[in-house]
Amino acid sequence: MIYNFSQEESQKIIEHFGQAFFEKVLKDIEIYSTKWDLKILQLVDYYSVNCIFICHSQQFGNAILKITNPCREVCTEFNTLREYNGKLFCNVFDADIDNGVILEELIEPGIRLRDEKLIEKRLFVFSHLFNNLHIVSDNPKVYPTYLGWVTRITDYMSKQEDYKELYSFMKKAKDICSSLCEIYCKNLLLHGDFHHDNILLGNNNEYRIIDPKGVIGDPIFDIARFIINEFHDNDKISFEDYRKHIEIITEYFEKSLNVPIDILKKCIFIETTMANCWNVESGEAPDMEGVIYAEAIMNG
Ligand SMILES: Nc1ncnc2c1ncn2[C@@H]1O[C@H](COP(=O)(O)OP(=O)(O)O)[C@@H](O)[C@H]1O
Ligand SMILES: [Mg+2]
After folding, report:
1. Is residue 78 within 8 Å of 84, Cβ to Cβ?
2. How many whole angstroms from 262 Cα to the centroid of ligand 2?
3. 113-298 has which fold?
């Protein structure tokens, strides 16, 4: 056995991803342990769409092995990491894109920005990374565009009979996104999922970035995901508390990122609505209250 799963770990993987995926993981850790000379040390206790292991590679050094089912996101993540080439992002060592597996540099100590208690520090770290980040892609055709994301999910929602209200919000979000793209028209390589769990403390007290989706657009579209994620731990929040918190963040970002507050609020509305439509697409219930709050904030 290459890695001994505890009973709790196997149970969690099977509950979260299903038996077939667990078997893929078992097979993959054998294949890639040989291919990349890996000693698998620990399963990361984080279950979204990947199974993640900390390991040591004789060839590459300390590494993260990320296993998922083959999908376009694996390809765009690999390409984005390659293009950023370790600048603010983790390095990528190798991948088997057709099998949904990536090997990348382990960021140590790897504490998530989510664990930082002071909001000023969180906003400062994000601003510093954001302001030094975005590059022109050498190969933009391999990525979707942000407006393409918005358009695709709007089309999908137009066919969902049970979600007429959410669809009307999404249509509005798409119109706002289209007009923003006329003024904010840079076509840079965006992270696409730039939030607290994808920003990790590395060497010399410097934060590094992981897990890019890779999408082309104006950098303004790489801000709202972080703002929305500030509310990650508040399941139920009153509108007044939401409003106050958004005010604090947008006032800070208006100065630190040089983006006007009303533009930030439009981006929050677009991203919140799109994320809830993605929930519908993956069979989860949308949070309509969140969409209504974001619209009310945008409308002042
Ligand atoms: N390169 C890395 N270095 C250190 N920890 C990592 C690295 N990549 C992932 N992790 C850990 O695994 C968690 C989830 O990884 P991530 O790549 O963001 O996967 P997902 O796509 O499932 O969100 C991160 O929040 C972090 O704790
Ligand atoms: Mg992530």
Report:
1. no
2. 28
3. Aminoglycoside 3'-phosphotransferase; Chain: A, domain 2 (3.90.1200)
The ligand 1 atom at the shortest distance from the C-alpha of residue 48 is 22
Packing angle of the helix pair 288-298, 164-183 (nearest 10 deg): 40
Rounded to whole angstroms, the Cα distance separating 6 from 123 reads 38
Q: What pLDDT, in 10s, does the model give residues 148-167?
A: 999 999 999 999 999 999 99
Q: How far apart, in whole angstroms, are the C-alpha atoms of residue 56 and residue 100?
A: 20
Helix axes 146-158, 261-281, angle to 10 degrees: 50
Residue in 197, 199, 209, 232 to alter for ligand 1 test, most ligand atoms within 8 A of Cβ: 197
Q: How far is CA 196 from CA 113, 201, 234, in A?
A: 5, 11, 15
CB 97 within 8 A of CB 78: yes
Q: Encoding tokens for residue 259? A: 């983006």
Question: How far apart are the two ends of the chain, measured CA to CA in Å?
Answer: 59
Q: From 1.10.443.10, 3.30.200.20, 3.30.390.30, 3.40.50.300, which CATH number describes the 7-105 domain? A: 3.30.200.20
Q: Provide the pLDDT confidence category of residue 1 given band limits of 50, 70 and 90.
A: low
Q: Compute, in angstroms, the gap from residue 39 CA to the centroid of ligand 1.
A: 18
Identify the CA nearest to 295 among candidates 192, 170, 193, 178.
170
pLDDT higher than threshold 70 for residue 138: yes
Contact 91 CB / ligand 1 (< 6 Å): no
